[in-house]
Amino acid sequence: MVTISDIAAALGVTPSTVSRALSGSPRVKEETRLAVEQMAAEMGYERNVVASNLRKGKSDIVGIIVPRIHRNFFSNVIGGAESILEAAGYCVLICQTHERLEAEMKALRTLRNNQVAGVLMSHAIGALDGKHILDALGSHIPLVQFDRVFSDLPGAKVVSNNFEGAYAATRHLAEQGYRHIGTLAGYMNSEAYAARLEGWRQALRDCGLPEGEVYEDTIVRETGFEAGLKAIDAGCDALYSAGDFSALGAVEAARSRGLRIPEDFGIVGTANETFTSLMTPSISSLALNPFEMGRQAAQAFLSGEEGTVVVPMELKVRESSCRIHSENQIPDKPCLK
Amino acid sequence: MVTISDIAAALGVTPSTVSRALSGSPRVKEETRLAVEQMAAEMGYERNVVASNLRKGKSDIVGIIVPRIHRNFFSNVIGGAESILEAAGYCVLICQTHERLEAEMKALRTLRNNQVAGVLMSHAIGALDGKHILDALGSHIPLVQFDRVFSDLPGAKVVSNNFEGAYAATRHLAEQGYRHIGTLAGYMNSEAYAARLEGWRQALRDCGLPEGEVYEDTIVRETGFEAGLKAIDAGCDALYSAGDFSALGAVEAARSRGLRIPEDFGIVGTANETFTSLMTPSISSLALNPFEMGRQAAQAFLSGEEGTVVVPMELKVRESSCRIHSENQIPDKPCLK
DNA sequence: CCGGATAATACAAACGTTTGCACAAACATC
DNA sequence: GATGTTTGTGCAAACGTTTGTATTATCCGG
Questions:
Q1: Which of helix, strand or coil describes residue A153?
Q2: How far is B89 from chain A (nearest CA, A)?
Q3: pLDDT score of A263 more than 60
Q4: pLDDT by residue (tens digit) across B8-65?
Q5: What is the CA radius of gyration of chain B?
Q6: Is the dihedral of CA B159, B160, B162, B163 positive or negative?
Q7: Which value, in Å, is the radius of gyration of the alpha carbons in chain A?
Q8: pLDDT of A190-245, one tens digit each?
Q9: Could you say which DSSP state residue A235 is in?
Q10: Does the CB of A32 fall within 7 Å of any strand D atom?
């Protein structure tokens, strides 16, 4: 492995000059810099980033912690963040928590021990507050939270307009004539889910509909199925689900009770997972904009600004919630107006 | 940040003793080790892995390079590898190449510069051979290839039984009465796709069917759609697709030509992406076993053994290829026997 | 009680880079 | 031409750990 000392020796200068030349310091003569660069290229030098990191006390690695990478939402956030960070010379260390708090803590420790330049994260559902995050990262590792955020933690945050999105989704169901709209609410220790719940509630009030049933802790297919059955038994004719997998479960629940979708039962999910547009019936979904959220999170890290960025959601109206003129509907196109 | 020197000072020993104590060297007294461990815990010490890595010349990071993390297949491979590596004390650095050779080379350089302990990878389609991999990793960073492998490179390999899988898929189509079976073959510079092509070819021969059309470079929805149209125009009544997204495109192509699936046109895809079982019609797919492949790849890295591990594929028969008694079929259950 | 083996620890040199400070030379200012 | 300022380099000390070798303490048999 060729080091800066080798280059220095070959050129009759000192390692410090080589180091400065390669890092673009204004304190070396243009001529020297060129000589160094040429010799470095010639000898096939590549900087030992581990040594560099040790000396500088931080690395060019940015850690991203997500519950699960195979969720469309998260893999797209990662993609968005990567597109920005890579251009800025960082590389990305991805950790999955599988929604487990202990895995999240381990990931945080790992990242800190590797002296990452920053952490972008969406916390596990198992985490009740962000204390462990603060403890692990201390004050010198910048933190950017996205989607699931603890708003009392310092640092930048990137979120969706969950309240408005859920409001629009619920209102859409009401406009389609559904009158008893429940919700699969997700986990209440996540502010994102809590905001969606409030949006749903407000929409019901504004539409003059009675308070609907709330089914918490529903986020996967199985729990969506069970809650869907309960909702049907409780007399619901529609559900706004804060997740797509649980919406899928609810669709299956309705089917298993012999209900037609959307004629007898309407459903809107959240996240716009790939399958929602491919299924029959296709599932209406409140789309997040994960790629953009990833980009914004990365930008926030790079700029160091601390504010909260709101990335708007978009309601994708599909078959599962369109019972007005539903035979004319084309999936993915709004059916109103 | 508390260092081993701090612990040493507090205990009146030297840093070297502390280091040895913490790394479990037999050259420290049991009593000293306990004292060190206790003091370390008390002071909240955590090893600076960057310094450790520099000194040791390698890190506890294992790099995983995949074309795209949001593909179900790859995210599950990562999950499988992670489950093994994490237990062994490694952490995982994930890089995406987006199928671009230059991104792959950059990822390899990044990993080498970070002195990773090993690399697990599935090469980008853009790569014609593995020379750049060898160049980047040299001989001292162990390499494990999975799924898409260059068989002339050294190191362990984990692959599916692509030939046998494609053979079974094609045979299944023939047994369903399809007589003109083409293939969406993927990219021929990948040995995995080449093997599937051969399996398809052999099945046609063994079933006494004529040689079918081959559409190369089909791997995404759009190219699958285009190739699907061509296949239909060429008189095909079925396709074995080496990917699911291209199979999806082909389904859409058949629909756009007014063909009924599976009555008029049969399709089997590959990879068992989530959407295949949720669509209508559900798409039959040749399932890989990504989680197991990831586990095997990680095991191969840990053990250092160089052989080739074959993980079997499993044909999931669904609606898109079941025209015999197709109204009785239940998705996901085989319809034969 | 001494010589030699063994056990436990100390010493010091790495690993490759970065960076504050010192230093010399060149240049500008009065 | 003395003084101050800029410009380019060299020197050396870090960063925190690991590890080969030297050193001391401990123990044994004779």
A1: coil
A2: 10
A3: yes
A4: 999 999 999 999 999 999 989 999 999 999 999 999 999 999 999 999 998 989 999 9
A5: 25
A6: positive
A7: 25
A8: 899 999 999 999 999 999 999 999 999 999 999 999 999 999 999 999 999 999 99
A9: T
A10: yes
The Cα–Cα gap between B254 and B227 comes to: 11
Q: Which helix (H) or strand (E) holds A213?
A: none
Please check whether residue B102 touches A, CB under 8 A: no
Helix (H, G, I), strand (E, B) or coil at B221: helix
Nearest to B113 among A46, A86, A274 (CB): A46
Instruction: Quote the tokens at residue A248.
Output: 């899928």
What percent of chain A clears pLDDT 90, i.e. is strictly above it? 84
Q: Say which of B46, B91, B110 has its CB closest to residue A91.
A: B110
The rounded distance, in Å, linking the Cα atoms of B287 and A201 is: 42
Residues in chain A: 337
- Sequence-distant (6+) residues with CB within 8 A of B127 are B101, B104, B133, B189
For A152-173, write each residue's pLDDT tens digit.
Answer: 999 999 999 999 999 999 999 9
Sign of CA dihedral B77, B78, B82, B85: positive
Chain A window 246-265: which residues touch B at a Cβ cutoff of 8 Å? 248
Specify whether the CB–CB gap between A149 and A206 falls below 8 A. no
DSSP calls for A162-188: HHHHHHHHHHHHHHTT---EEEEEE-T
Q: pTM, whole model, 2 decimals?
A: 0.85
Residues 28-67 of A with CB under 8 A from B: 46-51, 53-54, 59, 61
**Chain position carrying tokens 């756009």:** B256
* Residue from A233, A285, A240, A277 nearest A259 by CA: A233
B325 touches chain A (CB under 8 A): no
